[in-house]
User: Fold this.
Amino acid sequence: MHLSENTILQGGKYRIIRTLGQGGFGITYLALQTGLDREIVVKEFFMKDYCDRDKNTRHVTLGTKGSREMIERYLEKFGKEARNIAALDHPNIVRIMDIFEENSTAYYVMEYHSGGSLSSIIKQKGAMSEKEALSHIAQVASALRYVHSNLMMHLDIKPDNILLNKRGEAVLIDFGISKHYNSHGKATSTPNTSGISPGYTPLEQYDEGGVGEFSPATDIYSLGATLYTLLTGKIPPPAMQLVNNQTLTNELIKKGISSQVISAVTKSMSFAKENRPQNIDDFSSLLDKLLNVPQQTQPIISIGTSKEIMRMRGSIIKLEAENNNLKFENSSLRRENHTLLQEIESLRASIMEQKETSFANRQEIATLQRQQVIDSNTNNSLNSETATPQDLINGKEGTNESLQNDMFMNNVIELSPISKIRQEEMPLITEYRKAAEQGKAIAQYNLGYCYEKGLGVVKDPTEAVKWYRKAAEQGDTKAKMALQRLKQ
Assistant:
C-alpha cells in the first residue's frame, strides 16, 4: 500500500505528490519540499513481500516475528545505502539530501531529475545515434571511475538506473546492491544477491560469491550491455545464453554501428571476466577518441590578500608535515600492494598452466573442484569429445576432460560426451539436457539444479526432483543431498 497523494512527512517539510514506482525493497515517490517549493524524490523502505501498512496511521509493520530479524537487517542496509551515496560527490551521481525515520520505517530524500531514465527514452524514441549513446556512456563511465576509485562497485548498471537531468546529462542512481571493498580488494559488505537484471548482469554475479573480490570488469560488462541497448533499442540476451558474441555483432551491424564501437561492446561483454577491460581507462581506450570520459575537476581557489596567502602557506606547511608522517605508512602499503600483485601474477600464471595440463593437475590446483571420472565407453551415438564452456565461446571442439564452470553458483558443471554443437548460439542448457537424457549422472544433477534455481529454464521443483532422483539412482552424492534438502 502506497502513501496517498498529499501525505505530509516530517511535520510538513515534505508533501507526497504521486508514486513513481515500487521495487522489492522500497517505494519511490515524487514529493514537494515545501520550504523551498521544489520537487524532490522520497524513497521509503517497504519490502512488498513482508511489510504491510495500517490504513489509519500509515505505520508500516515489518513482517512477522519469524521474518522481522531479516527485515531489520535490510532496513539497516537501506540507511547505509543512503549514507554511502551521500558520501559520493560527482556530477553524474544522484545526490542524497536528507534521511529520516517515520511511520515505523525509514526514508531518504534525493534530488529529482525530470528528464526520465534512458530506458524510458528508448521505449519512447527507439535506438539512439552512435554519438548520442556514446555521450551518455561517457558520463556514466566517469561516474563509475569515481565509484571504483572509492573501492566500490555499483553492480546494477542498466538504462533503468540512469536518469537525465534538465541539462540532458546522465545521472547514475540506485546503489541498493552496491558493494564496498577494503584495500586488499576483499568485500566488506554483503549486497542483496537477488538484484539480477537479465541482459545486463554478467555470469559471475549470478554466483553468490562471484563478486567477493573487487573487479571493475563486472560493472564494465553492464556498461557495455547498456551501450548495446542504447544503440539497438534492445535488451541483450542473458549472459548465460551468450555462447559467443556473434548475436551482438549482427544486431549492431544491422544498425550501421562502426566497427570500433562494435568491438568495444563485444569486448566489454566477454563471457570470461579476464577478457574484458579491467578498468574504465581500458574501456575508454577501446573507443579511443570516440569516448571522452570527463574527469572530475577541482575548484579553483582564489587567494586575495597577503595575509590570506600567509595563512594558506601555514596550512600547506602543516599538511606537508602530516604528509611526511604518512609516507612510511604509504611505503608499507605499496610494499603490500606489490606483494599482492606478485601473488596475483603467480596465480594467473598457474591458471594459464592449468589450462594446458591434464584433468588431474587442474584438480590439484582447484581445491573446490569435485573429481568426476567420465566413462569413455559411452553410447556409440555420442561423440568422444567434450565441449568445455570456454571452447563453446571460441566455437571449438573440446577435449575429454571436465571443467569447473562458475555459471551456476560454484556447482561443477561437466559436459558428458555429446554431439558437436551445430548452432553457435545454442544455449548451454540444451547440451546438459541431451547428456542427461542419455544417462549421464552429472548432467542429470545439473539439469535438476537448473530447474530448482530457474537458471536458463522456468523454475520447476517437480522437474528438479525428477532429475535429481535419476542422478541419485546412479549414486550421485550431490543429487542425494539435493533431494534431502528439498524434502525439508
About this structure: The two ends are 33 Å apart (CA to CA). The chain is about 40% helix and 10% strand. The chain has four domains: 8-111, 118-290, 340-369, 389-487. The CA atoms of residues 90 and 297 lie 10 Å apart.
